[in-house]
Amino acid sequence: MKKTILITGATSGIGKATAQLFAKYHYKIIICGRRKDRLIELEKELSEYTEVHSLAFDVRDKEAVSESINSLPDYFSDIDILINNAGNAHGLDPIQTGDLEDWDAMIDINVKGLLYVSKAVIPKMTAKKSGHIISIGSTAAKEVYPNGNVYCGTKHAVDAISQGMRIDLNPFGIRVGAIHPGMVETEFSEVRFKGDADRASNVYKGFHALQAEDIADIIHFVVSRPYHVNIADLVVMSTAQASSTIVKRD
Ligand code: NDP
Ligand code: 8X3
Questions:
Q1: What stretch of H or E contains 234?
Q2: What whole-number distance in Å separates Cα of residue 28 and Cα of residue 133?
Q3: Rg (CA), the chain
Q4: What is the total count of domains within the chain?
Q5: Residue 134 sits in a domain of what CATH number?
Q6: 233-236 and 184-185 as β-strands: parallel, antiparallel, unpaired?
Q7: How many other CB atoms are there within 10 angstroms of residue 23's CB atom?
Q8: ipTM
Protein backbone atom coordinates (compact mmCIF):
# COMPACT_ATOMS: atom_id res chain seq x y z
CA MET A 1 0.00 0.00 0.00
CA LYS A 2 1.23 3.49 -0.85
CA LYS A 3 2.53 5.53 2.09
CA THR A 4 1.48 9.13 2.64
CA ILE A 5 4.03 11.85 3.32
CA LEU A 6 3.28 15.41 4.40
CA ILE A 7 6.04 17.92 3.66
CA THR A 8 5.98 21.47 5.01
CA GLY A 9 7.87 24.13 3.09
CA ALA A 10 7.40 22.26 -0.18
CA THR A 11 7.27 25.38 -2.35
CA SER A 12 11.04 25.80 -2.44
CA GLY A 13 14.45 24.33 -1.71
CA ILE A 14 14.74 21.19 0.42
CA GLY A 15 10.98 20.62 0.76
CA LYS A 16 10.35 20.93 -2.95
CA ALA A 17 13.22 18.59 -3.87
CA THR A 18 11.91 16.10 -1.28
CA ALA A 19 8.41 16.22 -2.77
CA GLN A 20 9.87 15.71 -6.26
CA LEU A 21 11.92 12.71 -5.14
CA PHE A 22 9.14 11.02 -3.17
CA ALA A 23 6.75 11.51 -6.10
CA LYS A 24 9.12 9.46 -8.22
CA TYR A 25 8.94 6.73 -5.57
CA HIS A 26 5.12 6.92 -5.83
CA TYR A 27 4.33 8.03 -2.29
CA LYS A 28 1.04 9.90 -1.81
CA ILE A 29 2.20 13.44 -1.18
CA ILE A 30 0.77 16.38 0.73
CA ILE A 31 2.65 19.54 -0.15
CA CYS A 32 2.38 22.58 2.12
CA GLY A 33 3.44 26.20 1.94
CA ARG A 34 2.02 29.71 1.77
CA ARG A 35 2.60 30.45 -1.93
CA LYS A 36 -0.45 29.01 -3.69
CA ASP A 37 0.87 29.64 -7.21
CA ARG A 38 3.90 27.49 -6.47
CA LEU A 39 1.77 24.77 -4.84
CA ILE A 40 -0.48 24.63 -7.91
CA GLU A 41 2.51 24.39 -10.26
CA LEU A 42 4.21 21.69 -8.15
CA GLU A 43 1.00 19.70 -7.76
CA LYS A 44 0.66 19.68 -11.54
CA GLU A 45 4.26 18.53 -11.99
CA LEU A 46 4.10 15.75 -9.36
CA SER A 47 0.70 14.50 -10.49
CA GLU A 48 2.44 12.89 -13.44
CA TYR A 49 3.95 10.42 -10.97
CA THR A 50 1.55 10.09 -8.05
CA GLU A 51 -1.45 11.47 -6.14
CA VAL A 52 -0.79 14.91 -4.70
CA HIS A 53 -2.77 17.18 -2.39
CA SER A 54 -1.86 20.79 -1.63
CA LEU A 55 -2.43 22.61 1.64
CA ALA A 56 -1.82 26.36 1.74
CA PHE A 57 -1.30 27.67 5.25
CA ASP A 58 1.07 29.76 7.27
CA VAL A 59 2.58 27.52 9.96
CA ARG A 60 2.29 30.46 12.39
CA ASP A 61 -1.51 30.28 12.22
CA LYS A 62 -2.42 27.46 14.61
CA GLU A 63 -6.11 27.40 13.61
CA ALA A 64 -5.25 27.26 9.91
CA VAL A 65 -2.73 24.48 10.55
CA SER A 66 -5.17 22.27 12.46
CA GLU A 67 -8.13 23.01 10.18
CA SER A 68 -6.08 22.22 7.06
CA ILE A 69 -4.68 18.97 8.39
CA ASN A 70 -7.95 17.85 9.98
CA SER A 71 -9.88 18.47 6.79
CA LEU A 72 -7.68 16.36 4.54
CA PRO A 73 -9.71 14.13 2.23
CA ASP A 74 -9.88 10.52 3.47
CA TYR A 75 -7.48 9.35 0.80
CA PHE A 76 -4.71 11.58 2.24
CA SER A 77 -5.69 11.73 5.91
CA ASP A 78 -3.64 8.77 7.15
CA ILE A 79 -0.20 10.39 7.29
CA ASP A 80 2.69 7.94 7.63
CA ILE A 81 5.59 10.39 7.37
CA LEU A 82 5.81 14.01 8.45
CA ILE A 83 8.69 16.14 7.23
CA ASN A 84 8.90 19.26 9.41
CA ASN A 85 10.88 21.37 7.00
CA ALA A 86 9.24 24.82 6.76
CA GLY A 87 11.54 27.44 8.19
CA ASN A 88 13.99 30.18 7.44
CA ALA A 89 16.51 32.56 8.91
CA HIS A 90 15.47 36.20 8.99
CA GLY A 91 18.41 38.59 9.24
CA LEU A 92 22.00 38.07 10.38
CA ASP A 93 22.60 40.72 13.01
CA PRO A 94 24.33 40.95 16.36
CA ILE A 95 21.98 40.54 19.29
CA GLN A 96 22.27 44.22 20.26
CA THR A 97 20.91 45.43 16.90
CA GLY A 98 18.68 42.49 15.97
CA ASP A 99 15.21 43.22 14.63
CA LEU A 100 12.29 42.13 16.82
CA GLU A 101 10.19 41.26 13.76
CA ASP A 102 12.94 38.93 12.56
CA TRP A 103 13.12 37.27 15.98
CA ASP A 104 9.35 36.79 16.07
CA ALA A 105 9.35 35.33 12.57
CA MET A 106 12.08 32.79 13.34
CA ILE A 107 10.66 31.71 16.69
CA ASP A 108 7.08 31.59 15.39
CA ILE A 109 7.89 29.72 12.17
CA ASN A 110 10.84 27.48 13.02
CA VAL A 111 9.71 26.48 16.52
CA LYS A 112 6.03 27.17 17.12
CA GLY A 113 5.02 26.33 13.54
CA LEU A 114 6.81 22.99 13.74
CA LEU A 115 4.95 22.28 16.98
CA TYR A 116 1.53 23.25 15.55
CA VAL A 117 2.00 20.96 12.54
CA SER A 118 3.27 18.09 14.68
CA LYS A 119 0.38 18.51 17.13
CA ALA A 120 -2.11 18.16 14.25
CA VAL A 121 -0.43 15.09 12.76
CA ILE A 122 0.56 13.10 15.86
CA PRO A 123 -2.88 11.93 17.13
CA LYS A 124 -3.48 9.62 14.17
CA MET A 125 0.05 8.25 14.49
CA THR A 126 -0.40 7.47 18.19
CA ALA A 127 -3.80 5.89 17.44
CA LYS A 128 -2.37 3.53 14.84
CA LYS A 129 0.91 3.12 16.76
CA SER A 130 3.15 3.88 13.80
CA GLY A 131 4.55 6.84 11.96
CA HIS A 132 7.75 8.71 11.20
CA ILE A 133 8.52 12.33 12.04
CA ILE A 134 11.63 13.94 10.61
CA SER A 135 12.48 17.53 11.49
CA ILE A 136 14.99 19.56 9.53
CA GLY A 137 17.31 21.18 12.04
CA SER A 138 20.65 22.59 10.92
CA THR A 139 24.31 22.66 11.86
CA ALA A 140 22.98 25.78 13.63
CA ALA A 141 21.27 23.32 15.97
CA LYS A 142 24.66 21.97 17.00
CA GLU A 143 26.79 25.12 17.17
CA VAL A 144 26.35 28.88 17.32
CA TYR A 145 28.03 31.27 14.90
CA PRO A 146 28.51 35.06 15.00
CA ASN A 147 25.20 36.91 14.44
CA GLY A 148 23.36 33.59 14.26
CA ASN A 149 22.01 34.09 17.82
CA VAL A 150 18.23 33.68 17.42
CA TYR A 151 18.29 31.46 14.31
CA CYS A 152 20.72 29.13 16.10
CA GLY A 153 18.45 29.28 19.16
CA THR A 154 15.46 28.16 17.11
CA LYS A 155 17.40 25.30 15.58
CA HIS A 156 18.74 24.20 18.97
CA ALA A 157 15.08 24.16 20.00
CA VAL A 158 14.20 21.98 17.00
CA ASP A 159 16.93 19.56 18.09
CA ALA A 160 15.63 19.46 21.69
CA ILE A 161 11.99 19.15 20.60
CA SER A 162 12.87 16.30 18.27
CA GLN A 163 14.63 14.48 21.11
CA GLY A 164 11.65 15.12 23.37
CA MET A 165 9.23 13.81 20.77
CA ARG A 166 11.29 10.65 20.39
CA ILE A 167 11.05 10.02 24.12
CA ASP A 168 7.33 10.79 24.40
CA LEU A 169 6.35 8.87 21.28
CA ASN A 170 8.53 5.86 22.10
CA PRO A 171 5.62 3.91 23.71
CA PHE A 172 3.72 4.26 20.42
CA GLY A 173 6.43 2.82 18.18
CA ILE A 174 6.75 6.06 16.22
CA ARG A 175 10.09 6.82 14.60
CA VAL A 176 11.39 10.33 15.33
CA GLY A 177 14.57 11.89 14.07
CA ALA A 178 16.23 15.06 12.87
CA ILE A 179 18.49 15.87 9.94
CA HIS A 180 20.91 18.75 10.36
CA PRO A 181 22.35 20.15 7.13
CA GLY A 182 25.15 22.66 6.75
CA MET A 183 24.93 25.23 3.96
CA VAL A 184 22.46 24.21 1.24
CA GLU A 185 22.06 26.37 -1.87
CA THR A 186 18.35 27.21 -1.83
CA GLU A 187 16.31 30.40 -1.41
CA PHE A 188 17.33 30.33 2.27
CA SER A 189 19.88 33.15 2.03
CA GLU A 190 17.62 35.27 -0.19
CA VAL A 191 15.01 35.10 2.56
CA ARG A 192 17.64 35.76 5.26
CA PHE A 193 18.90 38.84 3.39
CA LYS A 194 15.40 40.01 2.43
CA GLY A 195 15.71 39.57 -1.31
CA ASP A 196 19.31 40.82 -1.69
CA ALA A 197 20.25 38.26 -4.36
CA ASP A 198 23.92 39.35 -4.62
CA ARG A 199 24.51 38.99 -0.90
CA ALA A 200 22.67 35.67 -0.93
CA SER A 201 24.65 34.20 -3.82
CA ASN A 202 27.95 35.19 -2.16
CA VAL A 203 27.16 32.75 0.65
CA TYR A 204 27.61 29.82 -1.78
CA LYS A 205 30.47 31.26 -3.87
CA GLY A 206 33.80 29.49 -4.28
CA PHE A 207 32.83 26.03 -3.04
CA HIS A 208 30.51 23.19 -3.95
CA ALA A 209 27.64 23.72 -1.53
CA LEU A 210 25.08 21.06 -0.68
CA GLN A 211 22.07 21.12 -3.01
CA ALA A 212 18.44 20.59 -2.01
CA GLU A 213 18.48 17.26 -3.89
CA ASP A 214 21.31 16.01 -1.62
CA ILE A 215 19.09 16.50 1.44
CA ALA A 216 16.07 14.97 -0.30
CA ASP A 217 18.17 11.92 -1.05
CA ILE A 218 19.15 11.63 2.63
CA ILE A 219 15.54 12.05 3.76
CA HIS A 220 14.57 9.22 1.42
CA PHE A 221 17.38 7.05 2.80
CA VAL A 222 16.22 7.71 6.37
CA VAL A 223 12.58 6.97 5.53
CA SER A 224 13.32 3.83 3.55
CA ARG A 225 15.28 2.00 6.29
CA PRO A 226 13.54 -1.08 7.69
CA TYR A 227 10.99 0.00 10.30
CA HIS A 228 13.08 -1.18 13.26
CA VAL A 229 15.85 1.24 12.22
CA ASN A 230 15.42 4.85 13.31
CA ILE A 231 18.07 7.35 12.27
CA ALA A 232 17.73 9.64 15.26
CA ASP A 233 20.17 12.40 14.41
CA LEU A 234 22.15 13.08 11.29
CA VAL A 235 24.52 15.97 10.53
CA VAL A 236 25.54 16.56 6.91
CA MET A 237 27.83 19.19 5.44
CA SER A 238 29.40 19.88 2.09
CA THR A 239 32.91 18.41 1.93
CA ALA A 240 34.21 21.98 1.78
CA GLN A 241 32.53 22.88 5.06
CA ALA A 242 34.09 21.92 8.40
CA SER A 243 31.90 23.99 10.71
CA SER A 244 29.47 26.90 10.48
CA THR A 245 32.36 29.32 10.00
CA ILE A 246 35.07 27.20 8.36
CA VAL A 247 34.52 26.71 4.64
CA LYS A 248 37.28 25.99 2.16
CA ARG A 249 36.63 28.34 -0.76
CA ASP A 250 38.59 28.55 -4.06
P1 NDP B 1 13.81 27.91 1.30
O2 NDP B 1 13.73 29.36 1.62
O3 NDP B 1 14.19 27.52 -0.08
O4 NDP B 1 12.42 27.18 1.67
C5 NDP B 1 11.73 27.49 2.85
C6 NDP B 1 10.36 26.85 2.80
O7 NDP B 1 9.70 27.11 4.05
C8 NDP B 1 9.50 27.42 1.70
O9 NDP B 1 8.82 26.39 1.04
C10 NDP B 1 8.52 28.31 2.44
O11 NDP B 1 7.24 28.30 1.79
C12 NDP B 1 8.40 27.61 3.79
N13 NDP B 1 7.98 28.55 4.82
C14 NDP B 1 8.69 29.61 5.30
N15 NDP B 1 7.95 30.31 6.17
C16 NDP B 1 6.74 29.68 6.23
C17 NDP B 1 5.54 29.95 6.94
N18 NDP B 1 5.41 30.99 7.75
N19 NDP B 1 4.49 29.11 6.77
C20 NDP B 1 4.59 28.04 5.94
N21 NDP B 1 5.70 27.73 5.25
C22 NDP B 1 6.76 28.56 5.39
O23 NDP B 1 14.85 27.30 2.35
P24 NDP B 1 15.41 25.80 2.57
O25 NDP B 1 14.79 24.84 1.67
O26 NDP B 1 16.88 25.91 2.60
O27 NDP B 1 14.94 25.58 4.09
C28 NDP B 1 14.16 24.48 4.51
C29 NDP B 1 14.55 24.11 5.93
O30 NDP B 1 15.92 23.72 5.98
C31 NDP B 1 14.42 25.27 6.93
O32 NDP B 1 13.91 24.76 8.14
C33 NDP B 1 15.86 25.73 7.13
O34 NDP B 1 16.06 26.35 8.36
C35 NDP B 1 16.58 24.41 7.02
N36 NDP B 1 17.99 24.47 6.70
C37 NDP B 1 18.43 25.14 5.59
C38 NDP B 1 19.78 25.17 5.30
C39 NDP B 1 20.33 25.95 4.15
O40 NDP B 1 21.53 26.28 4.18
N41 NDP B 1 19.54 26.24 3.10
C42 NDP B 1 20.75 24.45 6.14
C43 NDP B 1 20.17 23.81 7.29
C44 NDP B 1 18.85 23.81 7.53
P45 NDP B 1 6.32 29.59 1.57
O46 NDP B 1 7.20 30.79 1.52
O47 NDP B 1 5.60 29.30 0.28
O48 NDP B 1 5.40 29.57 2.74
C1 8X3 C 1 21.26 27.02 7.59
C2 8X3 C 1 22.73 26.90 7.53
O3 8X3 C 1 24.91 27.97 8.31
O4 8X3 C 1 23.20 29.45 7.49
O5 8X3 C 1 20.70 26.43 8.69
O6 8X3 C 1 22.96 28.38 9.62
S7 8X3 C 1 23.47 28.25 8.27
A1: strand 233-236
A2: 16
A3: 17
A4: 1
A5: 3.40.50.720
A6: unpaired
A7: 22
A8: 0.99
